[in-house]
Each structure stands twice: as structure tokens, then as C-alpha cells.
Design goal:
174 residues, alpha/beta, Rossmann fold, P-loop_NTPase, nucleotide-binding
Length: 174
């Protein structure tokens, strides 16, 4: 039976890299909200306070991604969702919806030290490699990092969560 594999963590934790690897190992389809968001909405992003603009579009895009995911699941394939559900309540609401609709769910919660994550984000901004979807400024990095809420004991009672440290030996050794 196909399952939903939800990949979450703070900005720069390695979610896109992990998701791509997981897609290769499982044959699942990786769907990243940031990639869809950048393609659909980035040309229209306001220069000022973009948070309300972003949140309205993110909610609509989450609905679209879930509809698409249901079709993929119905075809017999896993979906690997990277949705940027950085706050606990929206993440658990989404998980309850997945389970309530009868799908299996596995959550992978990734993390790395803040300074490692910021270094990764800076490199990604410059290199614009395969995991790049948009420039992440220091202000956005700090805001998103401060908003990140890891799962807690109550979440673990409801859902299966695998914790993944994404720090490499090179990053660990400095």
C-alpha cells in the first residue's frame, strides 16, 4: 500500500537532498512546495511585507499538492512531500487529514545545527544547484528558523516519526 512520506525540518536542514535520495530508494514521487511555489508565484512576489501574500498562496498550493498526491497514491506510488509545515499545529492537522483519509504516513523530521543550516543556505543561494528554488535571505532564514516547532511527545503518540540528523562528517569536523 502506498504511503505519504512527509519530510519536515527547519530551513537548511537538508530536506530537499534527503527527499531526492528517499525518492530514489523508494520509487516515490517527490513533491516540494517550494519548487511549485517558486514556479507559480515568485514573479508576483511583493517587495515589501510578503508574509500575508505568501501564506494565502501557500494554503491554496497545499490543497493543490494534496489533490495531486491523492492521484499519485491511487496509482500505487508513494508520495514524498516537502511542504514547509514548520509549525506543529498545521503539520499535525495535515497528518490527521492524511490518516483520516486512510493513507499510511511516515514523518521524517530533519535537523542540523543552526550555523550549519545557515552555511548551507548561503551556499545554495550562490550555487543555485538542484535543490535551489529561491533566494533565502538572512532575514527569512531567521524568521523561518524562529518559527520552526519540532514534534513533541503528543505528536509521536499520533504519528510515526523518524528523526534524522543531516550533518555530514565534513560539517561536523568544521
Amino acid at each position: 500500500m502506498p504511503i505519504v512520506r512527509l519530510i519536515e525540518g527547519p530551513v537548511g536542514a537538508g530536506k530537499s537532498t534527503f527527499s531526492a535520495s528517499l525518492a530514489t530508494r523508494t520509487g516515490g514521487l517527490h513533491i516540494a512546495l517550494d519548487a511549485w511555489f517558486a514556479k507559480l508565484f515568485s514573479p508576483d512576489r511583493p517587495t515589501g511585507d510578503f508574509i500575508p501574500w505568501y501564506m494565502a498562496r501557500k494554503d491554496r498550493l497545499l490543497d493543490l499538492i494534496w489533490t495531486h498526491s491523492q492521484a499519485v497514491l491511487a496509482s500505487g506510488s508513494d508520495v514524498i512531500l516537502e511542504l514547509g509545515l514548520i509549525q506543529r499545529q498545521p503539520r499535525m492537522d495535515f497528518c490527521r487529514k492524511v490518516i483520516g483519509e486512510g493513507f499510511g504516513l511516515m514523518i521524517y523530521e530533519l535537523d542540523a545545527p543552526r550555523e550549519v543550516r545557515w552555511d548551507r543556505v548561503q551556499r545554495r543561494n550562490i550555487d543555485r544547484g538542484s535543490t535551489f528554488s529561491m533566494i533565502v535571505s538572512e532575514q527569512v532564514f531567521e524568521l523561518a528558523s524562529s518559527m520552526w516547532e519540532p514534534s513533541d511527545e503528543l505528536d509521536r503518540e499520533e504519528c510515526e516519526i523518524e528523526y534524522v540528523s543531516t550533518i555530514s562528517d565534513k560539517e561536523r569536523d568544521g
